[in-house]
Amino acid sequence: MTFNFGALGDSVPLLDERFTVGMFFIIEFLARRRATRKEGQLYYMNQYLSISDEVGAYDCIDCGVKDIDQETMQKENELFKSLGINYASDNNIDIVLDALYNKLKTKMA
Q1: CA dihedral defined by 97, 99, 41, 4, rounded to 10 degrees?
Q2: Which residues contact 68 (CB under 8 A, 6 or more apart)?
Q3: How many CB atoms lie within 10 A of CB 44?
Q4: pLDDT at 103 over 80
Q5: Radius of gyration over every alpha carbon of the chain, rounded to an integer in angstroms
Q6: 54-59 — which CB contacts under 8 Å span 24+ positions?
Q7: Least enclosed by CB within 10 Å: which of 10, 21, 98, 107?
Q8: Which DSSP letter does residue 57 get?
Q9: Which of 17, 19, 21, 24 has the alpha carbon at shortest distance from 70?
Q10: Three-state secondary structure string covering 74-86
Q11: Residue 2: its pLDDT value, please?
Q12: Structural domain boundaries in the chain
């Protein structure tokens, strides 16, 4: 994801800092973004349009990833579950592709 924060003004999307486990704050952010999307925005869950040339495009030698202890994982899992987040994927690829096509069509006009 890439954001032009300057263009967002006061509506900069923030990550939920109650989480330290990447999986939880990423899923919460994506679910919240989908739940608050406006007409025409391509914010879906688990729809990663990709091409084969992306494989190996980047590598992470030392990303600072640390082992997460079970206590932290359980605590944050309980918090995540308590929030009732809808993280179900958007499985209808036709809807995603139609939305993408329409977005590209309006940008080309």
Answers
A1: 60
A2: 20, 21
A3: 21
A4: yes
A5: 17
A6: none
A7: 10
A8: S
A9: 21
A10: HHHHHHHHHCCCC
A11: 67
A12: 14-46+75-109
